[in-house]
């Protein structure tokens, strides 16, 4: 790494992943298989609707079928799980994505765990989390996998580094911590109850922001030369990191937008193609 | 906590747990149910044989049935899994313990994961790990649960503390890290690739040694006033911590033996009784 600031360009990493998928999708087409991702959107949250649309469009551009299922905001857990089970049994569907978050009356964990592990391309099931933690997951959670993919693309070493993860959600903070641990980083997991957060973040060679609060990570917290990955995406296209301030101290940083986000979507597409190939292999 | 050194007496914590179990076992007996733990020992490792015997004896003293299954050192993964499946289906068996480690020809992970989650009283399955990580496990891994039980018994606060865990195994380092995280500690996970281990251990308010190397954790690594939990048990009754040297700096410490070990066994018994009660409730 040189001493200039390295802007970790998510669009570039995502394009690299998608380019590799094109030939794989073509090979599958020759066998009569079109990879298919079913997306489920519950309710009418505009941000969630945008995410689902973006994912659907990304599928189409690669020749992946996107089957969109939209459910009313009053959908019950039982109704949602029944639909997931139909998709589990539908051999034309290779991947299932339930857009997070779901309305409050739904037991999101139960709904996630209803997804068959062979179709859990978004990496949200309880079992998938543990397989990932133990290093043998078929499909790790997409955002954590995207963070690791960005580091790998830019050949930023993980082994022996001190990674500080701010956030501990089941689909982001916890799995990314364990992925970095399995790549031989020393990992510190921080959260809302952490004391002296600024000084702990300051010990990180790699800092992952996964907290869901705009511009939460401050520039003067950052160790000179640290690598910053901002997994946040808040209203107004703002990440969890105070980008301009952190850029002054970091050696490398993901912007928002065009940082972790596009790589997350590319990872979802990759997992969907993986799942379709798995099916082609099995039959 | 006063300023004197607090020796965290595992025998005392274990007795407290076992005392609470006595009345529960009696109640189950009135319903015609004897909690039953099946232990599987593969091969003839003398240390493992001792552990299994200790667990069996601890069962008997509480009125818990212990069914010991000893298999030859050449047992295959398939043979072991077939036996586990028989125990899964046996309604008289409430808990199944496969003594770790198994001979090298066996896929230990596959064998652990063959244990039905409702009988996984030792907390070794992949799914159980994730349920624990997400805070809703029926039966967390016994040693991690024992460590938390010791802290709770002595009313040592966990929330907001910086816990440093040395070790990252699937049944000890990883689950104890996530348990402490779920109790609102800030958690750092260290391992063989960690750089500056001494100085990182020195940031810990709580230090968990789970590394499997005798006297590995040095006294001068320890922050004054830290609480030390030694989950190691090496040849010659020696833990992973240099006890005498660490005692000088710590405010509280578990000895070896009579520290984490007996509480681990008591936790196993508690989970077995929990499982038997669950069955009594369901029928």
TrEMBL record, chains A, B:
Range of residues in the leader sequence: none
Record flagged with keyword Ribonucleoprotein: no
Gene3D superfamilies: Leucine Dehydrogenase, chain A, domain 1 (3.40.50.10860), NAD(P)-binding Rossmann-like Domain (3.40.50.720)
InterPro entries recorded: Aminoacid_DH-like_N_sf (IPR046346), NAD(P)-bd_dom_sf (IPR036291), THF_DH/CycHdrlase (IPR000672), THF_DH/CycHdrlase_cat_dom (IPR020630), THF_DH/CycHdrlase_NAD-bd_dom (IPR020631)
A molecular function GO annotation: methenyltetrahydrofolate cyclohydrolase activity
EC number annotated for this UniProt entry: 1.5.1.5, 3.5.4.9
UniProt catalytic activity: (6R)-5,10-methenyltetrahydrofolate + H2O = (6R)-10-formyltetrahydrofolate + H(+); (6R)-5,10-methylene-5,6,7,8-tetrahydrofolate + NADP(+) = (6R)-5,10-methenyltetrahydrofolate + NADPH
Keywords linked to the UniProt accession: Amino-acid biosynthesis, Histidine biosynthesis, Hydrolase, Methionine biosynthesis, Multifunctional enzyme, NADP, One-carbon metabolism, Oxidoreductase, Purine biosynthesis
CDD domains for this protein: NAD_bind_m-THF_DH_Cyclohyd
Chain residues that bind NADP(+): 167-169
Domain Tetrahydrofolate dehydrogenase/cyclohydrolase NAD(P)-binding: 141-278
Associated pathway: One-carbon metabolism; tetrahydrofolate interconversion
Coiled-coil ranges from the UniProt annotation: none
Residue intervals of the Tetrahydrofolate dehydrogenase/cyclohydrolase catalytic domain: 8-122
Function text: Catalyzes the oxidation of 5,10-methylenetetrahydrofolate to 5,10-methenyltetrahydrofolate and then the hydrolysis of 5,10-methenyltetrahydrofolate to 10-formyltetrahydrofolate.
Family per record: Belongs to the tetrahydrofolate dehydrogenase/cyclohydrolase family.
Subunit relationships: Homodimer.
HAMAP family: THF_DHG_CYH
Name this protein carries in UniProt: Bifunctional protein FolD
Organism: Paenibacillus eucommiae
């Amino acid at each position: 790494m040189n001493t200039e600031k390295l802007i970790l360009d998510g669009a570039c990493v995502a394009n690299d992943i998608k380019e590799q998928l094109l030939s794989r999708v073509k090979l599958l087409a020759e066998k009569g298989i079109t990879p298919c991702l079913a997306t489920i959107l519950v309710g009418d949250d505009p941000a969630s609707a945008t995410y689902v649309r973006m994912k659907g469009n990304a599928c189409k551009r690669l020749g992946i079928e996107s089957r969109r299922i939209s459910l009313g905001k009053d959908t019950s857990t039982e109704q949602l799980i029944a639909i997931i089970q139909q998709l589990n049994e539908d051999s034309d569907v290779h991947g299932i994505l339930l857009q997070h978050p779901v309305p409050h009356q739904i037991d999101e964990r139960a709904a996630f765990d209803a997804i068959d592990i062979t179709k859990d391309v978004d990496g949200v099931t309880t079992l998938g989390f543990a397989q990932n933690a133990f290093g043998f997951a078929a499909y790790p959670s997409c955002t954590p996998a995207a963070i690791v993919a960005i580091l790998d693309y830019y050949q930023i070493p993980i082994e022996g580094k001190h990674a500080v993860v701010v956030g501990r959600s089941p689909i982001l903070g916890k799995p990314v911590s364990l992925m970095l641990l399995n790549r031989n980083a020393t990992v510190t997991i921080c959260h809302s109850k952490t004391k002296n957060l600024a000084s702990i973040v300051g010990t990180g060679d790699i800092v992952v922001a996964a907290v869901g609060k705009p511009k939460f990570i401050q520039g003067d917290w950052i160790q000179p030369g640290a690598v910053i990955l901002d997994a946040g995406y808040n209203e107004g296209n703002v990440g969890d990191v105070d980008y301009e301030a952190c850029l002054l101290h970091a050696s490398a940083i993901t912007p928002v937008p065009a940082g972790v986000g596009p790589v997350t979507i590319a990872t979802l597409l990759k997992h969907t193609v993986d799942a379709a190939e798995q099916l082609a292999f099995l039959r």
